[in-house]
């Protein structure tokens, strides 16, 4: 992304889109005060986050015993109810479905490729499904302090080890097929990227015409194989993202607010919720709704407007697809592919 002298003026920035992730799939009941359990509570969490200012909802589902649900029937039920309760929200299903261990001592792992592909057949269809690109370590506890998890299930040795050793399986056999299925069902992929190497893989998919659509993505700064919290890495990632992409910052625990404050100031978008963070300050809990409200307060302090639901759908370009590599590159503000015999650095096409 290019920054001009006036790029930090809030009146020149796109309105802020706030993602809410209030379903905390790694936690068990009692770990957080606002974990929804019943279907009614799932719906109410969405309504409360929307009323606080969130316009994108990151979705997981929980069984009544507190475990993350892996049943597509529950996703179907929740999607139908959310379409009625929060019609203006962008509804985004988490592509892992549930990575939580089945019981203490079990592995924390993403579900099989075939199971994840079933997300393309959810009815009613979500607006987005998040997608991982390239197999990668996902040690979500690497950046956690002892105080972050004190008194929670993850403080138990078996659960801690399960999350420490978790891996995201997302090789080419997965993402090539998944992108095809999502497009066939009119569902926008939301790319969850751990590093610049994964961003470069996505660019290759675009340049080869394998993916032709808006580039909507998260910079996932949770450590343990994903990006860390160094501000220079964040700024470099922002610099490398195409001008026409939509970028959201995602961090973990008490780094969420400062990382997102940087993102708000630079004109990107933010994600909050109990899936990422439980704390306002050291020792002081913070609900998902309160985290959304905090982002609204930071945006207001900087003079940056918060997007409505309809504006978020426009910014995300929900429903938009492109005809191939050339159109996608042009829409994203990227230089075209090199033509045979063409030398030197590439420039955007111009009309004489």
From TrEMBL:
Domain of life: Bacteria
Keywords tagged on the record: Metal-binding, Transferase, Zinc
InterPro entries: Aldolase_TIM, BKACE
The protein's required cofactors: Zn(2+)
Name of the featured protein: 3-keto-5-aminohexanoate cleavage protein
Organism of origin: Streptomyces coffeae
């Amino acid at each position: 992304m290019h920054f001009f002298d006036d790029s930090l003026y809030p009146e020149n920035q796109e309105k802020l889109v706030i993602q809410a992730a209030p379903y905390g799939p790694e936690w068990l009941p009692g770990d957080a005060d606002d974990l929804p359990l019943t279907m009614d509570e799932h719906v109410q969490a969405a309504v409360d986050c929307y009323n606080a200012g969130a316009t994108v909802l990151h979705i997981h589902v929980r069984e009544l015993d507190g475990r993350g649900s892996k049943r597509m029937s529950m996703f179907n039920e929740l999607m139908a109810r959310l379409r009625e309760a929060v019609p203006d929200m962008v509804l985004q299903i988490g592509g892992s479905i549930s990575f939580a261990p089945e019981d203490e001592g079990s592995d924390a792992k993403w579900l099989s490729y075939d199971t994840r592909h079933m997300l393309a057949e959810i009815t009613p269809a979500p607006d987005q499904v998040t997608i991982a690109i390239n197999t990668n370590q996902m040690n979500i506890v690497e950046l956690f302090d002892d105080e972050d998890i004190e008194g929670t299930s993850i403080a138990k040795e078996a659960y801690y080890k399960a999350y420490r050793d978790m891996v995201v399986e997302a090789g080419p056999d997965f993402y090539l097929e998944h992108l095809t299925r999502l497009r066939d069902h009119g569902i926008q992929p939301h790319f969850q990227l751990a590093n610049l190497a994964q961003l470069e893989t996505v660019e290759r998919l675009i340049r080869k015409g394998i993916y032709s659509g808006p580039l909507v993505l998260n910079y996932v700064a949770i450590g343990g194989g994903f990006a860390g919290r160094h501000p220079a890495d964040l700024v470099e990632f922002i610099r490398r993202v195409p001008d026409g992409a939509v970028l959201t910052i995602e961090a973990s625990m008490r780094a969420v607010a400062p990382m997102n404050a940087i993102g708000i100031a630079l004109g990107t978008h933010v994600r909050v919720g109990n899936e990422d963070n439980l704390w306002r300050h050291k020792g002081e809990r913070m609900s998902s709704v309160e985290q959304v409200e905090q982002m609204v307060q930071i945006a207001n302090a900087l003079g940056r407007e918060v997007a409505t639901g309809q504006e978020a759908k426009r910014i995300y370009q929900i429903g938009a697809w492109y005809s191939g590599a050339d159109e996608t590159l042009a829409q994203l503000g990227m230089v075209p592919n090199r033509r045979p015999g063409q030398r030197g650095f590439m420039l955007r096409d111009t009309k004489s």
